[in-house]
Design brief:
CATH topology of the largest domain: Tetracycline Repressor, domain 2
Radius of gyration: 19 Å
Order of helices and strands: HHHHHHHHHH
Low-confidence stretches: none
Strand content: under 5%
Number of strands: 0
CATH architecture of the largest domain: Orthogonal Bundle
CATH class of the largest domain: Mainly Alpha
């Protein structure tokens, strides 16, 4: 682990696997070291405390999703590419389900750590901005160049973006608790229905 960032990222990935398997309660210097195949001292070299390790792993989880979404095409048929972005956020396969359950564990743990709460709020804000842009794109409404002015441009759009965000939160929870085959069929169908009756008809 000569590369500091690479070492931290590998430990964060190991921590995520521990959380997926054993929950936040299973996270310790020893358990992460064993999962990563390093010594406890190797973990503490990068993360002196358990709290720092969890914060870094939560931030990495958020950044992974953000980076993946940023690579999604945003041209062509607007209904097509906006739907694909939304589907990418739903736990429709094993990888996304694990990612979502790990994120839920981090969010629950945020109640004990104000810095995790701040990270959750930042992530929620970024998602709201994304949903707002999706609503605008599907309705053919210009997207403001200055994101700080978005909330003042169209109150209806912002409220519908909040409803879309709430739908995505609730649907994700429902799908994560469903059988994989059910989730992969139900998720796209319910999303299509919501977009059709709540977003595209305005």
């Amino acid at each position: 682990m000569s590369d500091s960032r690479g070492g931290k990222n590998r430990l964060a990935e190991a921590l995520q696997r521990v959380v997926a398997r054993d929950g936040i309660a299973g996270v310790s210097v020893r358990s992460v070291a064993a999962e990563a195949g390093v010594t406890a001292g190797g973990v503490q070299h990068h993360f002196p405390t358990r709290a720092e390790m969890i914060r870094y792993a939560m931030a990495q989880t958020s950044a992974t999703v953000e980076n993946r979404l940023s690579r999604r095409p945003r041209w062509g048929d607007v209904h097509g590419w906006t739907k694909e972005i939304l589907l990418d956020l739903l736990p429709l396969d094993a990888e996304r389900r694990r990612e979502y359950m790990v994120w839920l564990a981090f969010v629950a743990h945020a109640e004990t750590d104000p810095r995790l709460t701040e990270l959750k709020q930042q992530t929620d804000s970024k998602l709201h901005s994304l949903y707002s842009r999706i609503v605008r794109a599907r309705r053919g409404i210009p997207i403001p160049e200055n994101e700080e002015t978005e909330s003042s441009v169209d109150a209806d759009v912002e409220q519908d973006a909040l409803l879309l965000q709430s739908l995505m939160d609730g649907l994700s929870l429902r799908l994560a608790r469903s059988e994989a085959a059910v989730a992969s069929e139900l998720g796209p169908r319910l999303l299509d229905r919501y977009l059709r009756i709540a977003i595209d008809t305005r």
